[in-house]
Design goal:
The protein is α/β, with parallel strands linked by helices. The protein contains 18 helices and 30 strands. Strands 17, 18, 19, 21, 22, 23, 24, 27 and 28 form a nine-stranded mixed sheet that branches. Strands 3, 5, 6, 7, 8, 15 and 16 form a seven-stranded mixed sheet that branches. Helix 2 crosses helix 3, helix 2 crosses helix 8 and helix 10 crosses helix 11. It is elongated. It starts with 10 loop residues before the first strand and ends with a strand. The relative contact order is 0.09. The model has no long low-confidence stretch (mean pLDDT 90).
Amino acid sequence: MAAVRPKLFSTMTAVQVHELGDESKLVLNPNVRVPEISPTECLVENHYAGLNFHDTYTRSGLYPLQLPFVVGCEGGGVVKRVGSHVAHVKEGDRVVYLQEGENGSYAQYTNVEHTRLMPVPDDVDLDMATAAAVQGLTAHYLVNDSYAVQDGDWCLVHAAAGGTGQIIVQMAKNKGARVIGTCSTAEKAEIAKARGCDFVILTKSDELQADDDVWPALADKVKKIVTENTDGPILAANYGPLNLNDGVHCVFDGVGKLSAIASLESLRPRGTAVFFGNASGAPPDIPPLLLSKLGSLSMTRPKMHDFVRTREELVERSSSVFQMLQNGQIGFSIQENVKFCKEGVARATKLLQERKTVGKVLFDIQQGLASNHQAATDILASRQARTVEKIGRMEAAIIPLTLEDAYSVQNSVKDAIIHRGSGATEVVGKKIAATSTMAQESVRVNEPFYGNLFSHSTFSSPAKINVNSAELGLQDQFILIEPEFAVMMAEDLEIGTEHTYDSIKGSIGSIFPSVEIVTSAFSVENFEDFKNVGAPSLIADNASHGGLVLGKQFSATDNTNFPQVLEGLNDHSCSLEVNGDWCAEGTGDRVLGHPLHALCWLANQMGKRGETLKKGELITTGVVVDKLVVVNVGDTVNVNYGDLLGTVTFSFEK
């Protein structure tokens, strides 16, 4: 009997770019569609993604891609699906790959052409293989093809303590070269020496300097080292002032703008400059006559893809790199396996850009997803627990540090709720929270946030709600209720559009008077406890959504005055009673001036994550009373929205 293939979710977590810019434009999106594979592709479940300067070039627009795109050019993982025309790869294979295009490696899954997959030997760890993919292959083609290093050559390697630099140094030494490395700090210089550099030049005269300032004098320092350590004399040329062997044979320059001229000036006549990176920016335009003046120099700017043009070439080159790893001919350090979350990705990217890395940085995608899963498990377990057994807060190792990380955990909570419901529940819309000054102050935030509405926790008025329901996870000592206006979308909204009051009002098909029931997975006895939980944890806890009670539907198709009522929601009032006693009243202008402003905020926030509001979805727009109302088991709640919209009635029981 054939084994049952594990089912994959339709969506995944990935880091996307929706607009070009700095690392703040990296968006952790938990709702990216899992890519379909073509007949020649494989679907790889990523365990690791490598951090490379190439990723910063696509994000900034230096290497243009169609927006939005998933970041990342290097990944490693396990093949989960194989295209129908693929013959040499099977499900379960451990592979690493180099990717190009919009479906990058900073994702749970990546669709990769089978010709780009490199098999990983059983005795090579997947993280080491992933770390070696871009930088190992780059070093391999640089020292073998861009400039074929020979025994006795002098080589200059910039950023010699970096991930690629360390491997270039070792491969050049294996070929018998003498290597001069450059580094920005003494700490990095020790790393470069440990990898085999014969000499190291610091590119800062003082490590407290913000920028490297030694480049103008670099060539003199390089030539002095060569002169003092060359067997035999420096030879004068038959023609011209340049000595034949004064300088290095080749320079491998991944720094770019700051170092380019110094690299050329460090070469001996007929030497070769290999520019392969832009860490400080793209190199300047270099006139051919300058190459002639400096001794008929050669210059090349190679790119990886031209040296792995076929699967055979890719596998042959990668096998050579992996064999060097196995034999101990090359080694390098993984500086950090960074947790795959927004905070981790942004922090590591900034370190790379500031040239503060001294080895390879990987994103541990499985660790990040496992952390989200654990957080979601803890949240749901606490929701279902008795009040006295609920957790006070999440463990430090899994608590989300940014709002985007919190939404990623929230997505795991959503998936867990749907999975637990075994098809009995589904997402029916979105809840917007903290839309009033009062609400924002109550949870210490300065902007709204949102969560999911589920079919199992949405009730029609009048309703009797059981506080002991494990699916709802209500706390009988702290049940917070919020009168709101809910709307239902009449059509899908366009992604990428900046939605405004005027543009969005025509997309609404119905209005509902509604009451949001707020709860918490965390032990809460009073408002101060609720405030101290913190916004990221509240967002992770599905924006503290416990339930929703809907009144009668007021639709555009049945009411000719619908546009007027919709536009007048800011003046529409409601009155709240508990057990027949008046408690509070309010109007729609409490919600960012108008409930539609909250809807615009939500649509635009979702658009930044590549999501949109869909036809038929419900959206609760935020509390309309300036009072926090807590009720008890046995209480009956009535919220009167006037003759036009009617009353919402419900009670709590055990």
